[in-house]
Amino acid sequence: MKRFFFHILICVSTLTALCGCSLIKDPLDSYSDVTEGINEVGEFVAFKDKAAVLSHRQSLYDQIRDRQEHWYLDLLLVGDAHADNAYAGTTGAEVLPFENNSIEGSNSVLARDWERYMEDVARANKLIVYIDSVADNTLTTSERRQFKAEAKIFRAMVYFDMVRLWGDVPIITTVARDITSENIEEVYDSYFPEQRSEKEVYEQIKKDLLEAIPDAPANNPTDKTRFSKSVARALLAKVYAEKPLRDYNKVIQYADELSSDGFALEEDFANLFGMTDDKTDARKRNTSESILEGQFFAGNGNWVTWMFGRDLTNYDANFTWAKWVTPSRDLINAFQSEGDQIRFSESMVFYQTTWSNYYPANNYPFMYKIRSAVNSIIKYRYADILLLKAEALIHRDNPDLNAAAAIIDQIRTRAKLPRLSASVRSSRDALSEALLKERRLELAFEGQRWFDLVRLNKVEPVMNTVYDRDSGRRSRVYPFNSYSYRLPIPQRILDQNPNLKQNLGY
Known about the structure:
Elements: H1 2-25, E1 37-38, E2 44-45, H2 50-66, H3 68-81, E3 86-87, H4 96-100, H5 108-130, H6 141-166, H7 184-191, H8 198-212, H9 229-241, H10 248-260, H11 270-273, E4 290-294, E5 326-327, H12 329-338, H13 341-347, E6 348-351, E7 364-367, E8 377-381, H14 382-395, H15 401-414, H16 422-425, H17 428-442, H18 449-455, H19 459-463, H20 466-469, H21 491-496
Antiparallel strand pairs: 1-2, 3-5, 4-8, 6-7
Helix pairs in contact: 2-5, 5-6, 6-8, 6-9, 8-9, 9-10, 9-14, 10-14, 14-15, 14-17, 15-17
Keywords: Cell outer membrane, Membrane, Signal
Organism: Sphingobacterium allocomposti
Subcellular location: Cell outer membrane
């Protein structure tokens, strides 16, 4: 098999050499996103000047806004429809498996995500590897450090999504060299990298974030679109809550550092996802609770709302076909049994439709946290981290149940719900269940539920019994088991790289 790929690489090398001959005669006079070109002495130049660096840096930020499929859309499909919060919505062959647990390596949604994540890693690596060699004195030392830090935070964000989806994935921190017949053995692993263990991936994420914090920009209360120190701290809190690197004291530490950075719960939950009274703009951006968000404005709007419901700035547009991530009856019952009207009305809405895949067409629910083309996509927010702190206080070796309950009550008070009862506050198990329910209601349709179940080993007890509670869910194809905690590596990726192995159970 390896000999076969060597043959392919030699062919590529031959083509590269042929092209190289013409480069000597006709040097490159234009630059691309992949390579800037070759200088007058034949040396590779990744960035010709500061302007090229700034353009590439902006391309990292553009991913949060413009590549919404893998950064947002598909994560909601996994986080909510693969869990008990939602149904797939559409009956499409690539989407329905997330609801009925029949996902296979042939799924094109997962293949799209893997490929785009790896493209993002390559973007980050290019900036990290080459920024120090840019021959432009107007690019200061402090700017080089800051831009490299931002790229490391971006890379950590990518790998955090990947490792939670697939577990063992390749760790790539370099830029592959051009292939020649002389170096093919040396560069083979760069083109066909092996998977690294889940723990190693988390260690790389931690390393990137810790190295980034000193040079990353500080939190700016008026601009929550930057890869700031606070973004790194939020991600570290999430990383230390996961099993491979679990350290609950670190979760608490980074949650507290975010508080010191000025983050707090927004007084009105509607400020996070609401719109102005005339439905022409987002109600509020850069809230005290938002840690990182992609922002949209009239004229350069957020198309992903088409996939989930109505765009309230263009009410009838793109509303003739079934939408993804339809709220489940089980989630609706959870909101109603809790009397949680505020978060219920901000999380879902009911419209009349022309389809009835899951509900009668005259009263059909839709997720509502992205309700227009000008609403922000909030990647990380403080309520998530605050509830992770409560989780850490409950589950650490020396639990502090009162402090954990106080955090949960703080979240509940904003939703105009009563404080937890004394019996719940005094029981570790009962408080843990209350926390999981609170996270479900607070973070519904933010792509968190599935990962909460995985992190707390709740997949089997929750997902194998949801069919007893939810009459509207499509029939389950396979039961959930220990293999379900990872999704399948896309088959076309396995076909391209003989050094990758499929996750067990697929």
